[in-house]
Amino acid sequence: MSDIHSKALPGISRAAWKVALLAGMASYLDAGAIVTNGTALVLYKESFGLSLGQIGELSAMLTFLFAFGALFGGRMGDRFGRRIVFTITMLGLTLGTALMAFATQVWMLYAATAIIGLCIGADLPVSMAMIAEEAPQGAKGRLVAFSHVLWMIAICTVQALQVLVGDMGAMGARIMWLHLLMVAVAVLVLRSTLPESREWKAARHRLDASAHDGATREDLGTLKQLLRGPFLPPLVALALFYGVANLSANTGGQFATLLYTEGAGVSVSTAGAIGVTVLIVSVISAVIFMRVIDKPSRMTWFLIGGLLYVAGQSVPLIFGVNQTTLMCWQFLQAVGGAFAGEPMWKIWSQELFPTLLRSTAQGITTFFTRILAAMAALVTPQLIVSGPSTLFAVLTAAVAFTTVIGWTWIGQMPIVDSESPPLG
């Protein structure tokens, strides 16, 4: 990717860090809600009389509604501004987590899951755009990458909380949801102090002025802008990159314990201990990614990360599934994925689209990714039980594919000038 990074990294003001933290909490709440939901449903099982089918339905509902929330929220963020959308989503998330924490009937769990899924999905693309638009030139990558650090911190926090309340049944589930409720309320209050994105306001003003002066104005209520001309290739490329690369990350997140227990004969407690160590490595890798993403060497780091990512998937494929190969898979994935996975999608999504299409594009690629992940999750357990070699062959091919298109295609795309409105 061309000529955007100076050798000397600029300083970042407290105001920019504030935006990065408060908008970036979308990633914290995203990861926190997903991990909390998985544990809390198990803890609620006896108290609410939940069947395994209902637990599956609630888990699938969260994923699917996240996808639709991202699609809708991303578009609304481009049309009406960042601030109003992520304020509404925080209000909704506050309601949803409160309903989860104080639920007394099964229908309340379904209602809360629907609200939470839609709101965290809608919040994420808009918040990422806000971070990039308020960051100083030369530091946009670092501040967007900071959101991934928050994502990892959320997982660590929720898993630590799970250890403390895991034997408390329904009360433990309520405590876990109360943690997210308190975070959502705090973020809602603090986000009220943030002004609208200056870059979005300026782009919208230019667009309105061009229409007033008689210039041809595109209908911002349609997706024509992203489905033609220079914006379609990056949209397709990023959808493929994020969607396919996420298959590996999603497998590690949802099914690592199943792989250890069913494929390698390892106890759940041992798998959990390995998972904690992997999380530590992931956080360290995310911090390093922050430090290098705005440097000219970013694509070198991407290539190294991609090779490690591919190597991680191939170890169980070549040497068979056992505790050692699964540990290699997770640790190499933690490092490689930080430089050639979702964090790079977040960066590229800010750079390859103009301001008034930025969160729309992220919403579309997020929608595609989450739907693909939900579909893959339907067959992954069967692959693990019947023969995990097929699973790791697919994952190796998937990550090799995304590394190639990232290096040869996306990485060569020109960065869009945010000063130019998306006019035909």
H and E string: HHHHHHHHHHHHHH
What spatial form do the alpha-carbon principal axes imply? globular
User: Quick one: how many beta strands?
Assistant: 0
Radius of gyration: 21 Å
Low-confidence runs of at least 5 consecutive residues: 2-8, 215-222, 420-424
Structural class designation: mainly alpha
The CATH homology group name of the largest domain: MFS general substrate transporter like domains
CATH topology heading of the largest domain: Growth Hormone, Chain: A
| Intertermini distance | 24 Å
Main pleated-sheet profile:
none
Query: Which CATH top level class of the largest domain fits?
Result: Mainly Alpha
In helices, the fraction of residues equals over 70%
Report the sheet-strand fraction: under 5%
Query: pLDDT average, as an integer?
Result: 87
CATH architecture of the largest domain: Up-down Bundle
Organism: Roseateles koreensis
InterPro entries: MFS (IPR011701), MFS_dom (IPR020846), MFS_trans_sf (IPR036259)
Membrane topology: Multi-pass membrane protein
Transmembrane segments: 21-44, 50-72, 84-103, 109-131, 143-164, 176-194, 226-245, 265-289, 301-321, 361-379, 391-410
Task: Please tell me about this protein's structure.
The structure is a single chain. The chain has 424 residues and is mostly helical. It has 2 domains: 15-197, MFS general substrate transporter like domains (Growth Hormone, Chain: A); 223-417, MFS general substrate transporter like domains (Growth Hormone, Chain: A). It is 79% helix and 0% strand. It contains 14 helices and no strands. Helix 13 runs antiparallel to helix 14 (388-408). It is globular, with a radius of gyration of 21 Å.
